[in-house]
Amino acid sequence: MVYHKSVLLRESVEALSIKPGGIYVDATYGGGGHAREILGQMEGGKLVAFDQDEEAISNRIDDPRLIMVNSNFRFLRNFLKLHNIAAVDGILADLGISSHQIDQPDRGFSTRFDGILDMRMDRKKKQTAKDIVNHYSEENLRDLFYAYGEIRNARKLASRIVEARKISIIETTTSLKEIANTCAERGKEFKYQAQLFQALRIEVNQEMDALQEFLKQATHALKPGGRMVVIAYHSLEDKLVKNYFRAGNFEGAIEKDFYGNVLSPLRVITRKALVPAAEEIEENSRSRSAKMRVAEKI
Q1: 44 with 95, same domain?
Q2: Is pLDDT larger for residue 5 or for residue 64?
Q3: Which residues sit opposite 94 in a β-bridge?
Q4: pLDDT tens digits for 172-207?
Q5: Which of 155, 179, 205 is the last residue of a domain?
Q6: pTM of the model
Q7: If residue 196 lies in a helix (H) or strand (E), which one and from where to where?
Q8: CB-based contacts of 23: which residues, under 8 Å, 6+ apart?
Q9: Residue 268 class from Cβ within 10 Å (0-12 exposed, 13-18 middle, 19+ buried)?
Q10: 189 and 228 assigned to the same domain
């Protein structure tokens, strides 16, 4: 079984401009597709690969140049220091969840299966989607659905969930979808469910906070001239990456020095996000929302 089909595989690794003896980071190992491609272009050197999911670690490539780290990429700085790595030549992050995680009903990520509301990428963490749905206040649920799911009638959905959980605990993806469908526009139930599941997944895994920490640490870790490549799958992630690459901050506020030079530690390589070709989308439908951005350390 294929664990995960890497998106924009050739384009992302090419964008790293691999140096044969360099040191690189694959911040989201998954099925090892990007890592395998990077290693294939290196002679010597090192590749440090992060993944917080223990099941991804079981896919470890047998290569002495590979250092596996079973942790979230938000701890990049700590683990590079642990392995006596002062700076790296390139960093690749393929955000989002793997096909393997989506296709496991018991993980609770997918709207296609009936399963427990879990959604933890790192199963050592305590809080699950079930905890959030059943214990967050109505106001917190509303804010969460609006901010991370971009759900327009978030107030109505939060209210319906709170009313439903008074009768019985909401434990499964099916139970939650049934509530969501009472708030969704007719014919757009699947999209609405996807927005809801996205919001919960982001909250469970603290994805936006982790991404911000990672981007700042990755910038410091890069050598001058080193490349950072990030593949995002929804507008919230992509906006953060775009703003940070352009302006060096997450608000996108451009600051310039006396001579008019932008005060950012990075130089944008991709003025416009690169997206998968039609052939790749046809072969792997989950790649259709991918946007890749590349920046270089000044």
Answers
A1: yes
A2: 64
A3: 231
A4: 999 999 999 999 999 999 999 999 999 999 999 999
A5: 205
A6: 0.94
A7: helix 189-205
A8: 45, 46, 47, 48, 85, 87, 88, 89
A9: middle
A10: no
